[in-house]
What we know:
Strand order of the largest sheet: 2-1-3-4-5
Structural class: alpha/beta
Largest sheet: 5 strands, parallel
Strand content: 15-25%
Amino acid sequence: MKLLVVDDDREIVDLLTIYLKNDDFDIIKAYDGAQALAKLNEYPDIAMMILDIMMPKKNGIEVLKEIRETNTTLPILMLSAKSTDMDKIQGLTTGADDYVTKPFNPLEVVARVKSLMRRSHISPESDSPEQIEVGPLIINKSSHEVTTLTGKQIQLTALEFGILYLLASHTNRVYSTDEIFEIVWQQESIVSAKTVMVHVSHLRDKIAEATDGDKVIETVWGVGYKIEDK
């Protein structure tokens, strides 16, 4: 499985390559944003990307925006020396799936990569419905497609789809941010509230844009999120 590692610090790229190769990943390397986009075109079978933010030519946020214009499903893990909440939120809002701050333990990055790969192939419960119609949306489990009742397709990342499917397949039930994180991210919840909030906000914006303002997902203040069975 090919994994693209992008960082202008060659020592970091080499270090991650050593650890990831131990888990049988085939590593493609790039050292700036322009190279990263070129490698994605050169290797269309790249399954995931580790992307640094502060880079020459094109920074990670610019690269991320360009990728998300045409590819919403490629799992992308951001790396950055910036650790403030606003920096993380910018990365997640732009379309990153996860975020690790430097300095980091390489084993943590490997664990995040494995988790992201599992998430990108989210398999809802076997007894959950193949197709759900909720509000103005039609949600297809096997194809991960979401369309409106008028036929407009909504492009979602794997995590956004996972959140929507979870709530839509259990209407009226309120899920806390911790529960959503543990089910959709398939990780133990550690400081997950902001991460979930950013993804839910992004998901709502996409739904509202396609449905003339219907955000579908409701906030239950102090508890979590739900979708009403109306």
